[in-house]
Every structure is written in structure tokens, then in C-alpha cells.
Amino acid sequence: RPENSPGPFFVDHTCIDCDTCRWMAPATFASVGDMSAVVRQPQSAAERQAAMQALLSCPTFSIHVRERQPGELKAVQQSFPLPVPGCDSVFHTGFAAERSFGATAYFIRRPEGNLLVDVPRWTPLLAQRLQQLGGVRWVFLTHRDDVSDHAAWAAHFPACQRIIHAKEVNRRQGTDQCEVVLEGEGPWALPDGGGDVQLVFTPGHTAGCVSLLYRPDKALLTGDHLAWSHRMQRLTIFRAYNWHSVELQLASVAALRRLDFLHVLPGHGRRARFADAADRERQLEALL
């Protein structure tokens, strides 16, 4: 694409404008003409690493680099999953899947058993890294849009169990094979009984959307329920992509006020980090 800045990194015409590279490496990538483009070549080792991480995470393999340094690719592959700033146990898996339009998946390390929240594209190298970190005991699927390669991940980690709400189950995506199906309106704990995780019914975007509160890091993992809008510079529910009920989604957002969280970690959209509970309340009120 002619919109790319001259240099080794470039984005081709297959970009689907999912925003993954732009939030992972904002110094390098930006939106130009309804697609991402390299607007500035990396100027430091840290910027180059972020650009390479975005390259590997692109769901459509639309990012390329003409020249690689010896051992660079392996080192970047080994950097995943990436720590989420401000969280001790929550990580970004990278390797987004095209079938979930580049949704962000997360990995949570916990003594009772590690947890995937939504799933990245099936990647043996990433699976090896997660195995080194203790494997995966639970795969929590927030809603039907972001289930992607859930069956491949479950097959690789045979002891893991997938969790999804009954209203999101369907045969076409294979979620009728999920081992744990949530019924009703919750809230729910994980079947291992750990008090660190609360599953919160947040319908609206879809009929059975469920968010996950990870209490130790005060992190709310929201799927497509709630996110930060880079364009509007505030929280958003992305009304244009609501598949069920905007009114119900807003009511679900309002109900989040009773929860103690300082991070919003979405599947689509940008992350939000609040200074304190008062800041969280102000941001929620601005949306509502």
C-alpha cells in the first residue's frame, strides 16, 4: 500500500482494520484510508519489538518486514504472552484470529489452574509457551463472536474444560461441545471453587454475554461488552455492533457499578485503566 512509510515494515491490502497493530505498536501503525498502515518506521529496539509483536498478532498476516535480525523472530515469539500493565497475573496472548475479527484473548495464571479468556488463533508455538507456564485448565468464552479455534485449544490441553453461557451455544461453532454451560443470570464461580474469579452476566451485545472479574488484579475482562474508544476517548459499548439489545447492554453496564475493578480488558476496543473507584464511576456515568 502506498500509504506505508518507506522502510522495512509495511501493511498490505488484506488488512481488515481490526485495530490490533495500532494499539499494540502505536508508534508505528495508524489508521489510513480504512486500513492500518506503517506511518513511522520503528526508531528504537523497543519500538521494533512492539512492531514485531503486532506482526505476529495480526489476524490476517497483513504485516510484513523485509529484513529480520538473526534470532529476532524466535525472541519475539518467546515474548508471548505479554504482561498487561498494572496486572500481576493477566497476560495478552497475541496471535489474534481472523474468525473473531482480531479479538484479544487473555491468559490468567492462577494456583487453582490457568485460564484462557476467549481464544487466540491456534498456534503451536503459543501453546508451547502456555504449557511452560503451567498449561490451561479452563477456557472461558465470553460470547459467540470470539470463540474462534476453541476446539483446537481444548484438544491440545485435554484436562481443560470450556465454559460458555447456554444462550451462546450452537452447533455451527462447535460450542455445543463445551463442558460447562452456564444457566440463568449468575453470578458464578469457576468449578474449581476459587474465590478469585467471578463470572458476571452482562447481556446486551449478545443474549448470553458474560464478563469475568479477576479479583486479585481488579481486572474486568469484558469480551465485546465494554471497551475504551480511542476515537471518542471514553468508554463505549459500540452500539453499531450490537446484535441483541442496546437497552439491555446499557443496563448491564450500569450493574457493573457494584463491582470492584480498575481495569477493563476487552476483546475488541482499547483497554481502560482507572485511577481509582471514583474515576471508574465518572467514566461509567459518562457512558450511561
TrEMBL record:
A Pfam family hit: Lactamase_B
CDD domains from the UniProt entry: YmaE-like_MBL-fold
Matching SUPFAM superfamilies: 4Fe-4S ferredoxins (SSF54862), Metallo-hydrolase/oxidoreductase (SSF56281)
InterPro entries documented for this protein: Metallo-B-lactamas (IPR001279), RibonucZ/Hydroxyglut_hydro (IPR036866)
Domain (Metallo-beta-lactamase) ranges: 102-268
PANTHER family: METALLO-BETA-LACTAMASE FAMILY PROTEIN, METALLO-BETA-LACTAMASE-RELATED
Protein name according to UniProt: Metallo-beta-lactamase domain-containing protein
